[in-house]
Amino acid sequence: MTTIIKKVYLVKSDPVKNNNKFWKGTLFDSGDVLCEWGRVGDTGQSKTFPGAGESFLDKKVREKKSNGRNDEIAYREVEIIDGVGSLSSNVNTNIVHVAKQQIQHSDPIASELIEYLSKVNIHNIGVASGGKIVFNAQKGACETPLGLIGLTSINEARNLLLSIGELVLKKSYGKSLLEETRGYLMRIPTDIGHKKLILEDFWRDTSCIQRQNDLLDALEASLTQVTRSPISSAVTNIPQVFDCKLSVLSDKKIVKKYFDDYYNNRSNMHTCYHLKPKNIWEINVASMQEAFEKDGSKMSNIVEGYHSSSAANILSILKSGLRIPPRSAPHVCGRLFGDGAYMAPVGVKGSPSKSLNYGFGYWNNSNQKRFFMFVGDFALGKYYTPTAHNYQSISYPVKGFDSVWAKGNHSGVKNDECIVFRTSQANLKYLIEFE
Q1: Rounded distance, CA 183 to CA 202, Å?
Q2: Which domains does the chain have, with CATH numbers?
Q3: 114-141: per-residue pLDDT in tens?
């Protein structure tokens, strides 16, 4: 049985000339070299060169990566993790299995929720990518047509996506966007079909940026799942991905508190007004709680607030807590008050439906029946309240202040919202499910 010694993946993507090609070279311990090539997303062609050796493979790679002829761009190497190196092939890392085993729960209702959140996460990735990013059940990971992308390529793609988003916002569909798109597609191999890519269609608006950002999140999460070192050498153990607890909230007084607050303070101006709360889950994300105890819990003005997210993103929050993407990232919407974690304070008119709207409006589709909103503690410390006259001209965070509390009908917004600028200022405690 031959053993793979070396693999090289190359990609060439030129939207203008309808080029979207891959080339893969594999060296075996026998000295044989297998070359495979074709259009990204297709099976392609292959040819074996018996006994050609590593020097032959290296020569082919140099030729492909040299400057192209007739103004064609050259191939670029892309980082693919395919099981030859760091993947733990003897460990079952299916995301549904991992989540159900590692998220601590003790009742079938919680188990069903975990399975639902896992599957909707996988489904949403497929839909958002037009089926071009697929879930590999054997690896338990989402991957591109060429396989699982390495972290270096993902990080480089994130930087390019920032530049792409800024150009899309300006409706600048010229040479600069073309160059950035070439770079992006050569880091994240994408099946764009057999037709010439039209930039105005591919990057139609910032929702396209949002989808690509979600895909990068999914690819990074999948990479983390399958490359993380096992807890022990035992085959029965799987990598530690989740460190959190989830259980149905049994305290009827607390359940009534939030249900009543929702019905008493929701606003019919929000599209989610008709939704009804169904369940409340008590959650504990270890990393988030630990960070809050070291930082936020020691601050003044700790306020309960609502924070909504799509069902497809709940699993990510249970894994890693809240994230604060930079405002310069065009997929970030509604960041009037800078880069921070946004919430709507509990007990304030309009707050629950305003927050829930973020998880309902953007992601709403005919197939979705379940919606979610977190409740958490947010440490405001010394907060700044802008006015309708200055809220757009101020740079956030404001020097000397720990947070912002934008007041409804006073700060340029119709409903209150609070913003903290460090994730350690927030700790999510409950998850409310709506239908």
Answers
A1: 15
A2: 4-77 (2.20.140.10), 88-242 (1.20.142.10), 244-434 (3.90.228.10)
A3: 888 877 766 655 555 555 555 554 455 5
Instruction: Supply φ then ψ for residue 416, to 5 degrees.
Output: -60, 145
Q: In terms of Cα–Cα distance, which of 308, 318, 9, 384 is closest to 186?
A: 9
For 135-278, where are the alpha helices, taking DSSP H only?
Answer: 151-169, 175-185, 199-202, 206-227, 252-265
- E-strand ranges in 294-360 read 302-309, 341-345
Q: What is the DSSP string of 373-412?
A: EEEEEEE-SSEE---TTTTTTS-SSPTT-SEEEEPBTTSS
pTM of this structure: 0.67
Please, which residues bridge with residue 22 across strands?
11, 38
Angle between helices 351-360 and 252-265 in degrees, nearest 10: 90
My answer on whether omega of the bond before 50 falls inside 30° of 0, hence cis, is no
Task: State the pairing for strand pair 19-28/33-39.
Answer: antiparallel
pLDDT in tens, 344-398: 999 999 999 999 988 775 444 445 678 999 999 999 999 999 999 998 889 999 9
